[in-house]
């Protein structure tokens, strides 16, 4: 083959003239002065490294030389092999972990005495690679079957556990230069896929049956009277009956099973499947009877078409519903499948790529720029920029410093970072969030129960109507009686009615999570929409709970910025909270080191800054340096004040206090703008609470300072007695009784301890503004539910008389019923695009 | 018209047969990978050792 010869010539030239040559295996330039070679196709080829040499040798030894020919024939000579193909020591050991039955239980299936697993292939870049891996797998002793699926980089392998082990299979793939990991699909995604596939099969069988039955039915319809013999007609009927059987027995089973479940449910409540099941069963039964006694009309074509249409509608609805629930799965999908684990303890050591499931707490992991953080851990190293939009809904990246917790699934928005794993698998923040949300969705709120009961009453009414219709038409036109009864049953089926609420709630739950509020209880959306009073527990809900510089007052010859620099320079060595707040406010280090640093505990710090003696700390301590009386301003401030001075006089005063959370004033204003009352209950000094209320614009009458847990409880009770529906926002741990008393309790979670929180909803976002978007969304959800219910009821009220009058054919009935439930689902999906006021929108991108 | 009595049962059998065949093909992974089989023809020695 031409290309190979050319490469060969090149390598000969290279040995003579020492020009850079491409490695025969990977296409990278061969470094000068190396002599790695491998015999491929009877010729010695130049290799760039021992790794490529070993791989090329291994491919040749296995008799898979055709790989190179295939690859070259497809024009993929260079750069299509995995760059990270060095055979590493200890790899075999780490692979052996996959032989553990406990580990295998997660991804290995047992099929007729063999084991089967899906593998994720890394480094697969062309169809030739897929061929090579497939051949390699098939040649492992004991492997009975190996299908490499290039499109999604996966392989399905089944092997005989008596002859080989999974680790050997994985090692074989590694020997030819690729990496394979067992692939474990998310539980929910797997269930969804299975559900979709089953639904599609049912639809296919029904469609296929429908077309074929129509072929047998058509001659009977178009034949002129007398031209078709009774024998021939009877033959067509039997053929139709046989082909309708799979449609009834397989495709229509969901309707029958659903109806059976409804009938057995206690307390008695009829669902939407009952009329459908009765409708098709009656039509099929009557037709079968007609066939057996060779007299009377048959409706096999209509029955199969009917099932097909109903299933088609259900399939579309299923897709829409799964899309609605996607916000839940999308959490799980954010976590990458593999991570770069650092091998040696030194920083900058080599990293090996391992699946995330193999990480253990304590492992150190490298996260490259733009990659997702594989699991929960602590940042090691000075600075990192991380985008935690997945939990907080905040699209801006957050700065992290050494020792800060990182959340698995967040995106590394800065440069490469190193982290130490603390939690894995089910213990991670992301897993807790998914669990909480799943619980919220499975809990049925009152709205759903109401709809369910209404639907049940409806079904009973429909059954009665159908019976009345059948009896009435018996006297008018007996040939149409059966059909009209069936039409009534189908067209009025309250599918839309039963779907109206749950779909809207699922969509809203997912959407809220995306905006930073995770709901853990089913009733939250309903209660949020109807809430009248929002009670904030000051500490940690409206403020950051962290000292920060609020204001600088220059008193001497320097400006505010210069004073802050001096203060930061002196305080840099101190661990005092005031010192840390000042250093943080000053930002970078602009004044070089200080001399003669001297700390007087409880008083302040003295140091030489650029040769001048300065003091920072309490007023009397600083004043003692120069003997001047302190300025009157701020002496009696409610916040803490730190003074700065030198030998000639006062320089500045710094006011430090608890800073407000982001967009808190806007959030309070927005809540008030929506007509909600905002209250502030605080265990702090009443003066401080009132001051905060003034800043935020909360009415003074709604503020209680110095409140004990009991008085907070009484306060909420009194509000409720006056008819208010109270949303209580607290930190979720200390104020449990008050939270329990409120109609909705919201906990502000600052980071990891999600499992400890006992609240109906958890605010993951740093800002109370997410609460406002939650209220807006909850009200939208309520509106959507109402629209859906009105639509469903209106639809039924209109079609019922039409069906009764015999103006709706069964075909139209099927289409009408399916599209009416589809409208309901699509209407609910609109919630994904709900707008919130701009000032409090944390993530305008999504709006 | 007697031929109908053969053809119609035959068509029923055919429809069922096609359905079952399609089901087996789908389950057997026939449609999973649409890329690599096209290349197999290019390789001289693509069959794994029969002894294994």
Concise summary:
The complex is a heterodimer of chains A (847) and B (52). Chain A has 847 residues and is α+β, with helices and mostly antiparallel strands.
Describe the model.
In chain A, a hairpin with a 2-residue loop joins strand 23 (640-646) and strand 24 (649-660). Mean pLDDT of chain A is 78; it is low at 1-18, 77-90 and 842-847. Among the domains of chain A are: 2-73, no CATH class; 91-184, Alpha-Beta Plaits (2-Layer Sandwich); 336-371 and 376-423, Calcium-transporting ATPase, cytoplasmic transduction domain A (Distorted Sandwich); 519-542 and 661-774, 3-Layer(aba) Sandwich (Rossmann fold); 544-659, Calcium-transporting ATPase, cytoplasmic domain N, CATH 3.40.1110. Chain A is an alpha+beta fold. Helix content of chain A is 48%, strand content 18%. In chain A, helix 3 runs antiparallel to helix 6 and helix 18 runs antiparallel to helix 27. By secondary structure, chain B is an all-alpha fold. Chain B is elongated. Classes of the chains: A alpha+beta (847), B mainly alpha (52). At the A-B interface, helix 3, helix 6, strand 5, helix 8 and helix 9 of A face helix 1 and helix 2 of B.
Features:
heterodimer; A: 847 residues; alpha+beta; Alpha-Beta Plaits; Calcium-transporting ATPase, cytoplasmic transduction domain A; 6-stranded antiparallel β-sheet; disordered C terminus; B: 52 residues; mainly alpha; 2 helices
Helix/strand layout:
The complex is a heterodimer of chains A (847) and B (52).
Chain A: H1 2-17, E1 36-40, E2 43-47, H2 50-61, H3 66-73, H4 91-96, H5 101-104, E3 108-111, E4 114-122, H6 127-138, E5 143-149, E6 154-159, H7 166-175, E7 179-182, H8 187-222, H9 230-251, H10 253-264, H11 273-292, H12 300-324, H13 326-333, E8 338-342, E9 351-355, E10 364-367, E11 376-380, E12 383-387, H14 389-392, E13 398-401, E14 405-406, E15 411-412, E16 417-423, H15 429-442, H16 446-476, H17 478-491, H18 495-514, E17 517-519, H19 524-530, E18 533-537, E19 543-554, H20 560-571, H21 577-586, E20 595-600, E21 604-609, E22 612-617, H22 619-626, E23 640-646, E24 649-660, H23 664-673, E25 677-681, H24 686-696, E26 703-704, H25 709-721, E27 726-730, H26 736-741, E28 744-748, E29 761-763, H27 769-804, H28 810-829
Parallel strand pairs in A: 18-25, 18-27, 25-26, 27-28, 28-29
Antiparallel strand pairs in A: 1-2, 3-4, 4-6, 4-7, 5-6, 8-9, 8-10, 10-16, 11-14, 11-16, 12-13, 12-15, 17-29, 19-24, 20-21, 21-22, 22-23, 23-24
Helix pairs in contact in A: 3-6, 8-9, 8-12, 9-11, 9-12, 10-11, 11-12, 11-17, 12-28, 13-15, 16-17, 16-18, 17-27, 17-28, 18-27, 18-28, 19-27, 20-21, 23-27, 27-28
Chain B: H1 4-27, H2 36-40
